[in-house]
Every structure is written in structure tokens, then in C-alpha cells.
Amino acid sequence: QVQVVESGGGLVQAEGSLRLSCAASGSILRINAMGWYRQAPGKQRELVARMFAGGGINYADSVKGRFTISGDPVRRTWYLRMNSLKPSDTAVYLCNAIMTTRVGETAEYWGQGTQVTVSS
Fold first, then answer.
1. Which one of 7, 13, 20, 114 is least enclosed by Cβ atoms within 10 Å?
2. SS3 at position 105
């Protein structure tokens, strides 16, 4: 069974920082892409940042210059460093990965989500 589990959310004041972590486990052959999404109450889920095993990183315009995604597909771990947090960053953050399993299936996997709350 393949799963991804994130950690590191919490409550922080505006302009503060947090780091989220995500780890994948199970019968994984290859991680093709690793990323972070977020969903605020009453809003659609949105991409925050994503990195590809072959290189290349995408960020949402709203977090460019403040958030940094990093990770190692071989170690099956990735992170989201969030600086200069704003109340508008408050959301449930979900880690996400596109992985190929050892039986050759490629699918998208989601963590359970971790709450990030930024107070003004």
C-alpha cells in the first residue's frame, strides 16, 4: 500500500515561518512529481508548489518569493518552507505526489492534510 503523510502545520503569527514535511512509503518504484496544495474554507483546492523528478518547479503566484519547495524523490521526502506568512495563507495544506508503483501503476496520491493558521 502506498501512502503519503504530511506534518508540521500549526498556528503562527503573520510574518512568521513554518516548514511542512511529507514522506511517501510503500511499494514505490518511482516518484515523478511532488507537491503541495492547499484548501481554505469555502474555496477550491489550489496548487501551492510542485517539483518534478526530472527538474522544474512551479509556484502559485501568491507564494512566489515566500515559499520554497524542496525534496529528494529517492529519499521519498519533500518539504515546504513558508516564510512571511499572511492570514490569507490560512488553509489545510495537503501533500501530493504522482508515483509509479512496483507493479507499474502510475497514480496521484494525497496526504490527509495539515492545518496552517496564520493570525494577524
1. 13
2. coil
